[in-house]
Design goal:
Elements lengths: L3 E5 L3 E2 L15 E4 L3 E2 H4 L3 E9 L9 E8 L15 E4 L3 H7 L1 E7 L7 E8 H4 L7 E8 L13 E11 L1
């Protein structure tokens, strides 16, 4: 008799340049990651976690948001997304709400250079049970100042999850 058990792959960091990311009061402008491509690994899920560090003298009671955006067909992304680490401005709040899936909303204080961890969050769960063929992450914030300028103070970690028969 065989058992089906969880198996974890090798964790990796998403490629996304968050150092000195500018603030946006509308939380429509931010940074897109390189695509997480699931057409080779074929993981059933990914656990998403990480950390983001505020800059100097942020505004209290604001939010840093981490979103996931799936490709429609394994090639095409909605709105301004293209699968590459780049600055993006989503067309409108209505479009953001219809295409972006919230991974984490990190509350801020007025203290400088505070690192806030998040996750792990099941990527499949936020997409209704299935991981899209390609996914990008989008980070935006309204802290009133740029994020911390040190690249190592920010991270989005991706851990693939599989099932195995033993």
């Amino acid at each position: 008799m065989s058992d089906v058990k969880l198996a974890y792959g090798t964790a990796a960091d998403a490629t996304i340049t968050l150092a000195s990311l500018a603030t946006d009061s509308n939380k429509l402008t931010g940074r897109e990651s390189d695509a997480l491509v699931n057409t080779t690994l074929l993981a059933l899920d990914y656990l998403i976690s990480g950390k983001i560090t505020t800059g100097t003298s942020p505004t209290a009671s604001k939010t840093i948001e981490v979103w996931a955006v799936g490709s429609w067909d394994g090639t095409t992304y909605p709105d301004v997304f293209d699968g590459t680490d780049s600055a993006e401005t989503i067309t409108s709040a209505e479009i953001k709400n219809s295409i972006c899936k919230l991974v984490a909303a990190l509350a801020t204080t007025s203290s400088s250079n505070v690192t806030t961890p998040f996750g792990p969050v099941s990527l499949a769960s936020i997409f209704g049970g299935v991981v899209p063929a390609k996914v990008v992450f989008f980070v935006t914030h309204d802290t009133g100042v740029n994020l911390n300028s040190t690249a190592g103070n920010h991270q989005i970690r991706i851990l693939p999850v599989y099932e195995t028969v033993v």
